[in-house]
Write a structure and sequence with these properties.
The protein is an alpha+beta fold and 207 residues long. The protein is built from five helices and ten strands; from the N terminus they run E-E-H-H-H-E-E-E-E-E-H-E-E-H-E. It is globular and about 40 Å long. Belongs to the YkuD family.
Length: 207
């Protein structure tokens, strides 16, 4: 259905599904989710110093960032930056597809796409708290997959956490690439992103 959102500076219309998108490619394999669930004292406590270093990005402020006009995801660093032009307004750790080598080529390869896309659907009833659909595949993705005799896949999302991840492990979920191609942040972070972007906001995903 369509909705109109009043965000304090005017109204905007966004497209929201009442149910999770079909054939959700973000659904993680049980083994990978199990790895996250079993982090516990041994895996999470890499060491106080090491973990503190990996958590070097600041926790997000729960504010609406009205000046955000693009998103940059850097896969090798596992970061997502909300930006105004080239200026970083906020930055988060992300989990990616379980196969993190190279761009997504075909359906089922477990990879996160690389390239320039757009945010084109908002879903407030996601299995992963909230999700925002990314416009993969584009025309180039279709051509590339067709040349391999395959389909490019679909339903790539920016979303919150799997509800099965234990509370004590949710802040370090990014240490495992547990999605099947989507980009995952914490529920608090997806709230910040949700309130900071618009339909059509460009998202560039780099290697």
């Amino acid at each position: 259905m369509r909705r109109v959102v009043d965000d304090g500076i005017g109204q905007r219309e966004s497209s929201v599904s009442d149910v999770e998108f079909p054939a959700d490619t973000c659904r993680p394999r049980r083994k990978i989710v199990g790895d996250v669930l079993r982090l516990g004292a041994g895996a999470v406590a890499l060491s106080a110093t090491s973990l503190a270093a990996k958590r070097s990005l600041a926790q997000p402020a729960v504010v609406r960032l009205l000046s955000v006009d693009n998103i940059l995801v850097t896969k090798h660093a596992r970061t997502l930056a909300l930006r105004s032009g080239d200026k970083v307004m906020n930055e988060f750790r992300v989990a990616l597809g379980r196969n993190d080598t190279g761009p997504k080529r075909v359906a089922g390869d477990g990879k996160t796409p690389e390239g320039l896309y757009f945010l084109d659907r908002f879903n407030s009833h996601s299995e992963f708290y909230k999700s925002i659909h990314i416009s993969y595949p584009n025309a180039n993705d279709w051509v590339r997959a067709a040349s391999l005799g395959q389909r490019p896949g679909s339903n790539i999302m920016l979303h919150g956490l799997d509800p099965n991840i234990a509370p004590e492990n949710r802040s370090v979920h990014w240490m495992f690439n547990w999605t099947t191609g989507c980009i995952a942040v914490t529920d608090l972070e997806i709230d910040v992103i949700w309130d900071s972007v618009r339909l059509g906001t460009p998202i560039e995903i780099r290697a």
